[in-house]
Amino acid sequence: MAKAHKLPSGSWRVQAKAAGQVKSFTAPTKTEAERRAASWQLSAERSEIIPDKMTLGEAIDKYIKIKSNVLSPSTIRSYENIKRNALAPISNKPIEKLDNITIQTVMNEYAASHSPKSVRNAYGLLTAVLKMYRPGFTPSARLPQKKKVDIYIPTEEEIKTILKLSKDTPLETPLKLAIFGGLRAGEICALTPADIKDNTVSVTKSLVFGTDDTWYAKTPKSYSGNRTVVLPEKLKLQINNDGRITDYNPHSLSQAYHKFLKVNSLPLHRFHDLRHFYISTLFDIGVPEKYIIAQVGHSSSSITKRVYDHISAGRQNDYTNKISGYFSTF
């Protein structure tokens, strides 16, 4: 910050530079002169970044543009959806006019018809954009509490039936990769024959939906997503005639699996729940948590723990009876 100098008149003067401009400020005291200069510098620097009438929608577009090469296509798509939906009521409002009452109102209205996760995602984008383009403002809004998601884990008998009924169908290989390797739908659909050697699968990419309605193979969001998965030695994967692992994309794979369960009168659940079966099995056979995290490509233990906590809660009665039975022998 520029320092003030005392004039012969007894007043204090400071010359400040900002945004290619130079301006002088004179005041009765040194503190006041420097305060005025600092205030002007901040305003001048911000005006270079924030046009006076930049709307929230324009700020979101700029935010996406300057991060276009570091965000995945699916993330960009979600940001654009948030702009069109959750933040639509304030997207044409100048960001300088936004206040906490307005933000709270929008979040409250959106929460009436959307999940807590969707609300938090919208608020996360809003705060990130404001932090970049309106750094002096700190948003503060109360958001809905997170809801505990009820995780479905197929039983071993259900898995055996699924494998039997899917044999020699286009679903066979994707199902085996999810059940025996814990791969996500996007990871499975991005695989090529070069990624599979004997019974080892190299997971280095995922198929994601871009803003231009095209599917792209992209590297995982986190470094932990890159991993090597070893499948059972006797497991044979079918390879399509054209050399591809599967013709499905994540969306069509999910739809095909849902139809498969329905036609065969099996309990309906998501394709992703096969990954939960894999994780629960690793816990059952005593694999330490840190190795499970690495095996399934989780970025932190919190995600793995959610599945583990669900398993523990579901088996609470079994553990209680076992404890009671043990001490009954005393």
Any chance you could write out the topology, listing elements then pairs?
Blueprint: E1 5-6, E2 12-18, E3 21-27, H1 30-49, H2 56-66, H3 73-84, H4 100-111, H5 116-133, H6 156-165, H7 172-181, H8 185-189, E4 196-197, E5 200-203, E6 206-209, E7 215-218, E8 227-230, H9 250-263, H10 273-284, H11 289-296, H12 301-314, H13 316-327
Antiparallel strand pairs: 1-2, 2-3, 4-5, 5-8, 6-7
Helix pairs in contact: 2-3, 2-5, 7-10, 10-12
Helix segment tally: 13
The radius of gyration over CA amounts to 28 Å
| CATH-derived architecture of the largest domain | Orthogonal Bundle
Query: Uncertain segments of ≥5 residues (pLDDT<50)?
Result: none
Number of separate structural domains: 3
- By CATH reckoning, the class of the largest domain would read Mainly Alpha
Mean pLDDT reading: 84
Roughly what fraction of the amino acids lie in strands?
5-15%
The profile of the biggest β sheet is: 3 strands, antiparallel
Terminal residue distance: 77 Å
Number of strands: 8
Derived from helix and strand composition plus strand pairing, the structural class reads: mainly alpha
**Main sheet strand line-up:** 1-2-3
Element-by-element helix/strand order: EEEHHHHHHHHEEEEEHHHHH
CATH topology descriptor of the largest domain: hpI Integrase, Chain A
CATH superfamily (homologous) name of the largest domain: Intergrase catalytic core
Helix share, percent:
40-55%
Structural shape? elongated
